[in-house]
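Problem statement: downstream parser choked on a complex file, so we are re-checking the raw output for the magnesium ion run. The parser issue turned out to be on our end (a line-ending mismatch), but while we're here, posting the original submission so the record is complete.
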Amino acid sequence: MSRKKTLKSKGASAPAASAIPASNEPRPARPGSARPGPQVPPNGLLQPGRPSLGGGGDFYDVAFKVMLVGDSGVGKTCLLVRFKDGAFLAGTFISTVGIDFRNKVLDVDGMKVKLQIWDTAGQERFRSVTHAYYRDAHALLLLYDVTNKASFDNIQAWLTEIQEYAQHDVVLMLLGNKVDSTQERVVKREDGEKLAKEYGLPFMETSAKTGLNVDLAFTAIAKELKQRSTKAPSEPRFQLHDYVKREGRVPSCCRP
Ligand SMILES: Nc1nc2c(ncn2[C@@H]2O[C@H](COP(=O)(O)OP(=O)(O)OP(=O)(O)O)[C@@H](O)[C@H]2O)c(=O)[nH]1
Ligand SMILES: [Mg+2]
């Protein structure tokens, strides 16, 4: 099985950020059911240094689009709900149909960074819908489920898809979700780390149920994107890999 190694960490380069472009307004799957946020100029900045007002009443300085991808059932929707509302969607699993999004504004080093987070359907039958959204994404969170080996084995196929459809400089992070399910775990932390290393991706294990590393994953993405769009040449670069390694909490099962 030959793995394409060209999907190296996007944290290593500093492409010009192109936050949510006006001409590429996100398109909701069901017209009228989702209302994207306000338009943002291609340089990603709205009145730098001064608060701006988004359509939803949220103040922000810069906005980016983040997409959640991975097999059906890995916990994409739950991860987003945990991040946005601080809650866990327990009970019946309701698979996402098409695509949906939620906004959240974060304070990143004194700047308001709005993340427009797109939650995609993992089911194969919606794949063509998802493809259309990749090119507008500034960052991708690629999830597998540590209790589902197939979802881990499919990461390679997801990476191939990302390579085909996403921007070459997209910020990408690998997340192994559901680490609270210690009894059911079938993918070891080391396996996730190894795969991430192979592709040069930042990696963390998360739990939408307990909230472990959920805020951190989104904050890390926001910091990287913000830095790309606003960094002065003299400023030291934000090191996404180091940040995630340093700040990420290791689940209790897997502490040395
Ligand atoms: N134990 C545990 N269960 C989780 C976690 N995250 C999600 N789940 C459960 O896993 C199931 C699937 O979660 P979803 O978030 O709907 O999965 P999804 O990736 O959005 O699936 P699709 O929309 O079909 O692509 C649900 O029953 C959730 O309750 C987690 O961190 N821990
Ligand atoms: Mg879902």
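For whoever reads this later: The first helix runs from residue 76 to 85.
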